[in-house]
Amino acid sequence: MARAPRVRSVATMSESLKAVTDIMRSGVVSVSRSTLLEGVGRAMREHGVHGVLVVDDHAGELLGWVTARSLLRHHASDWTHLTAGQAISESCIRVVPSASVTEAINAMLDADATRLAVVRPGSHTPDGVVSDIDLVTHLAR
Questions:
Q1: 28: phi then psi, degrees, rounded to nearest 5
Q2: pLDDT tens-digit profile of 26-53?
Q3: SS3 of residue 106 by DSSP
Q4: ∠ Cα 108 39 59 (to 5°)
Q5: Angle 11-90-97 (CA atoms, 0-180°, nearest 5)?
Q6: pLDDT in tens, the chain (141 residues)
Q7: What does the CA dihedral 100, 105, 111, 112 come to, rounded to 10 degrees?
Q8: Cα distances (Å, whole numbers) of residue 8 to 45, 103, 126
Q9: In angstroms, rounded to a whole number, what is the distance separating the alpha carbons of residues 64 and 61?
């Protein structure tokens, strides 16, 4: 698959230089690496999200995302034996809260990611998440 071209600027679109904190969703639904897939599915359903962040049980390190699509890939498996750590399908790409929309788009495209964790420097706790649809919605205003 061809790599998407980098976005140099989206300055022709209104408010394109806003920081990601202006468009992110505050808070992140997370689960531990050892959470069983049935618990991951329940978290997605209860919070109305399409992905949950998997966090290391001890160090608090952000490991990656289990997405709705990754759960579908495991639909025939026993969700009472597979863990979130085994079902991570997307790396946890981080952006700082001050990152511009253009920087967020480039980070997402470079990593072929669908969501970014918004994390302050020196922190392991995300302030929020910005998804591909959040960015598209912002650009389409």
A1: -140, 135
A2: 999 999 999 999 999 999 999 999 999 9
A3: helix
A4: 60
A5: 40
A6: 555 555 555 544 445 568 999 999 999 999 999 999 999 999 999 999 999 999 998 888 999 999 999 999 998 888 889 999 999 999 999 999 999 999 999 999 999 999 999 999 999 899 999 999 999 999 887
A7: 160
A8: 37, 9, 26
A9: 9
- The token duo for 3 is 């790599």
Q: How many CB atoms lie within 10 A of CB 10?
A: 17
Give me the count of residues in the chain.
141
Rounded to the nearest 5°, which phi and psi values hold at 24?
-70, 165
Nearest-Å Rg of the Cα atoms of the chain is: 16
Homologous superfamily of the 20-139 domain (CATH): CBS-domain (3.10.580.10)
pTM of the model: 0.84
Domain boundaries, the chain: 20-139
Number of H helices and E strands in the chain, helices first, is 4, 8
